Amino acid sequence: MLSDIHFDPFHDPGKVPQLISAPAAQWLAILSAPDTPTQAADFAALQKTCKMRGIDTPFPLLTSSLKAAQTQQPHPDFVTVSGDLLAHKFDCRFQQLAPKATEADYSAFAAKTVEFVALELHATFPQSPVYFALGNNDSGCGDYKEDVGSKFLQSDAQSFAAVVDKANSKAVLSEFPHEGDYNALLPAPFHNTRLIVLQDIFESRKFTACSNAKDPRGEAEQIAWLRTQLQTARAHHDHVWVMAHIPPGIDAYSTITDNRDVCGGKAPEMFLDSSAFADTITDFPDVIRLVLLGHTHNDEMRIYSSALGKVPGKLVPSITPVNGNNPAFTIAQIDPKTAALIDYTVTSASNQTGIDTKWSEEYRYSTTYNLPDFSAASAAKLLGDFNADKQGSTASSEAYERFYFVGGPGIPASLKAAAMRLVWPAYACSIAQVTEADYRRCVCSARPASASTKP
């Protein structure tokens, strides 16, 4: 499991004209060549112009990450990438380095970057299908923007169809070009297990069409498509994983850092525009075994609950170190008969460059939390314990606090845990409550009447 790669083809600006001219199959040779003489100064200027908050994944880090993943598990049953393949401020970077390019040129270069990442994953795991979701940065026209049936989606369909198993290539080619969605039957040894993939930027509150106009069509069509896929899976007694990029529910980071007085009536920040995605998930707890997500760059858990049952959610930490975290990936053990996530290990990098990088185990789920699996029952118990622990001081809470933000130079684990503990009650509510009303009830019930109502 990988997420938020945010590969930056602009890290050596002097190579960009070659990348624009060359097909993706030739990029490896270009990127492997020595840096241009002015790389450091050119890149620093580009970072400043585009107001980047950190450094995304350069080619050496992408290479190091994939090599480490291959070393840890040379022959995975399958590989997932839960969105955001392209670097932040991709449009600004391209415009600065190719000022005469057209909108079509931009879309083609973005699609070619996606193709290159897909080719690298395929070269790393040639015998394993690779399943991609697109994230909010993965667009042919800008962050959180897309048009239904765009040329960018059509190009990505070709790239992704080439790296999934042959049995699913036709499904990708036929379904993906419309809205970035597809339904794949997972290969043996899995029994009747499907991976349903969505590009859920259409559900985001920030989403617009490429023209900047609001366009609700994509969300309505996508949710209807998802519901149909799940109904069919239920009829065939299939198990399902759902993979998307942006998690349904509360954006705890934005809610807390914006200092929103939730108990005083202010609305918490939500990731998505409506509850439609979460409502659909929780209508099928008998079908869905896992919801696989990314977007926050952190190692997180979720539980999606309704009167019908519960569905576990896993947010995969990022490869990009743009937020100051060290890169990480996840290796999962799955029961092939039930599609339950039995165990997983997070492996993290010793630095953020990919140069002389050592990769080692950050933690293992089973031994850290002493649970038999990451099923709905286990996730509900664990996240329920988090909510009950208002001080964030139990062994399980402290482990989550410590591993939430992966690594980071000069950031002791004790300091990371202490920072999380300051906001623990509000954060713990966000991973177990998906609606604004339930989140407010959870947060405000945790505080005495005389205390501040701010999370």
Key descriptive features of the protein:
single chain, 455 residues, alpha/beta, 14% strand, disordered C terminus
Structural class based on helices, strands and sheet pairing: alpha/beta
Specify the biggest β-sheet: 6 strands, mixed
From the spread of the alpha carbons, the general shape counts as globular
pLDDT averaged residue by residue: 94
Intertermini distance: 32 Å
Oligomer: single chain
Strand content: 5-15%
Which radius of gyration do the C-alpha atoms yield? 21 Å
Summed up, the helix count is: 17
- Detail the poorly predicted runs: 448-455
Please give a structural write-up:
- The chain is of the alpha/beta class and about 450 residues long.
- Helices cover about 40% and strands about 15% of the residues.
- It has helices spanning about 15-20, 25-30, 40-50, 60-70, 90-95, 105-125, 150-160, 165-180, 215-235, 250-255, 275-280, 365-370, 375-390, 395-405, 415-420, 425-430, 435-445, and strands spanning about 80, 130-135, 180-185, 195, 240-245, 290-295, 300-305, 310-315, 330-335, 340-350, 360-365.
- The strands form three sheets. It has a six-stranded mixed beta sheet with strand order 3-4-5-6-8-7, with helices on both faces. Strands 9-10-11 form a three-stranded antiparallel beta sheet.
- The two termini are about 30 Å apart.
- The relative contact order is 0.12.
- Mean pLDDT is about 95; it is low at about 450-455.
